Amino acid sequence: MDPVIPIVDFDRFLHGTEEQKREVARGIDNAFQEVGFVYLKNHGVAKALIEECFAWSEKFFSLPLSTKQLSPHPPGGSHHRGYSSPGLEKVTQNTFDAESISKAREIPDCKESFESGNPLDKAQPNIWPPPHVIPGFREFLEGYFTQCGDLVHKVLECLGLALGVDGPGLAKTHSDSLFQLRLLHYPAIAAEELKGGRRSRINAHSDFGTLTLLFQDAVGGLEVEDRFQEGVFREVEPVEGAVLVNVGDLMARWSNDRWRSTVHRVGVPKAMGDTMEVVPSRYSIPFFATADPETVIEALPGCWGESRPKKYETVTAWGYVQMRMAALYE
Ligand SMILES: O=C(O)CCC(=O)C(=O)O
Ligand SMILES: [Fe+2]
Questions:
Q1: Domain limits of the chain?
Q2: pLDDT tens across 71-91, in order?
Q3: 181 lines ligand 1 (CB under 6 A)
Q4: Which ipTM did the prediction report?
Q5: Hey, whose CA ends up nearest to atom 5 of ligand 1?
Q6: Which residues of the chain have pLDDT under 70?
């Protein structure tokens, strides 16, 4: 059976009555408890803007490799900006020791990406291509970043409502907006390579941060792990006009595991059937949110009590994300 990712009408939070807002908050809360993913429709980011972002992404990735490499992702995992060519980033899941990391990396991810962040982020400055190579790219992405950041803040406000946290509560912990906008391109690939497990589009992983927004094209192939059967993945079909929102590890921990950070990966789209030999190229645009670095991550109100003791030690948001990033590169 396909996983049911609930679809919630976010306009009822953005413009609804108090009761409608609470209803949306309950809807997202339930979805995050059950699957860790929710589809939001009427999320307020204009369709034309999202389409334009996909167009910029296609334009960037169609540049020659040598041109894309004019804005290279630095070696190591601590400065996550710029262009990564296919095979550079190798996603692994919960493996921090050298031996298991190198084993997981035998199957390369067949994708290329371009990462950018908040222009005010001093710790991770953006790495843009020279303007003459793709004029307007930087300006567009900087504006798009702000729009996605606004949506993250709204979703956090809504989650705060679900937990009974007053006012902007949770959104306040993300006020630096040290988020990451990622353009992703999975080049066309022989179906055999993916099915035979010799290569993957993106290996199974969960996201590190608090929340991820994911816009994807119509190709499909995103799969989420069955909550009751480890290692069993089911496809999540794209829903036109809706943004997929999922819980990251930091949020799972912060919510004392009330909300799930579900493992996901990208494989062969089911809609292709068994006959197609080449899996078409796919584009997606995740936007990763995390809390301000100094935020103290300890069980949120409403997520612990006598019958639900706190499961995790207190960490800062910064300390946690650094540990996860270091396992990505090198
Ligand atoms: O491309 C996708 O649909 C998923 C990407 C993803 O999971 C990630 O970048 O963390
Ligand atoms: Fe992910």
A1: 7-183+207-215+237-264+286-325
A2: 999 997 789 999 999 866 555
A3: no
A4: 0.99
A5: 286
A6: 1-3, 87-106, 167-168, 327-330
Q: Whose CA is nearest to atom 9 of ligand 1?
A: 286
CATH of 7-183+207-215+237-264+286-325, one of 3.40.50.300, 2.60.120.330, 3.30.360.10, 2.60.210.10: 2.60.120.330
User: How far, in Å, is the centroid of ligand 1 from the Cα of 113?
Assistant: 10
User: Ligand 1 mean position to 305 CA, how many Å?
Assistant: 34
Instruction: Point out the ligand 1 atom lying closest to the alpha carbon of residue 221.
Output: 3
Among 262, 264, 265, 279, name the best residue to mutate to test ligand 1's pocket (greatest count of ligand atoms within 8 A of Cβ).
264
Cβ–ligand 1 contact at 248 (below 6 Å): no
For residue 284, which atom of ligand 1 is closest to its CA?
Answer: 1
* Distance of alpha carbon 101 from alpha carbon 104, whole angstroms: 5
Q: Which ligand is nearest to the CA of 89?
A: 1
